[in-house]
Specification:
The protein is α+β, with helices and mostly antiparallel strands. It has one domain: 3-Layer(aba) Sandwich (Glutaredoxin). It is built from 5 helices and 5 strands. The longest helix is centred in the N-terminal third of the chain and has 19 residues.
């Protein structure tokens, strides 16, 4: 964090933080916006979820993409942390695993901007597949 040397520095810092908070949390109609949820349970934080969340907040703002970035608890995919859920307006959510800042950038550029899915998706039916084959062969 930068040192505050003047009142103007403090005002600029406040404006920047308020913009980030608005991007992250405020919306009257969240279903009409891109929503990004970053799993921030202990396993996610230990795997780098904080950096991923900060990257999304900063880079969505820089690219003028109107989105809501929030944190959530454990999604149940501890083996694939950090995990991120992306929901584009009118579409089902997609959960990505093993998201680092490079993958987050790819998610922004390809999935959010172009609507193209990228590698690293955790399938919706993962639990069903896992349970089906967990009995051994």
């Amino acid at each position: 964090m930068k040192k505050v040397k003047s009142l103007d520095d403090l005002k600029r810092m406040k404006e920047g933080l308020q913009a980030n908070i608005a991007l992250r949390e405020k919306s009257e109609h969240p279903e009409a916006m891109t929503q990004i949820k970053v799993a921030m349970a202990t396993c996610g934080i230990a795997s780098g979820a904080k950096e991923v969340m900060d990257f999304f907040i900063t880079n969505l703002a820089k690219r003028n993409i109107d989105a809501i970035v929030t944190q959530t608890g454990c999604m149940g995919y501890c083996y694939a942390e950090p995990t991120v859920e992306v929901r584009l307006p009118g579409q089902d959510p997609v959960v990505y695993g093993d998201v680092d800042v490079k993958k987050a950038d790819e998610i922004i550029e390809k999935h959010i901007k172009e609507g193209e899915l990228v590698d690293g998706i955790i399938p919706v039916n993962y639990e069903t597949i896992d349970k089906k084959y967990s009995g051994g062969i």
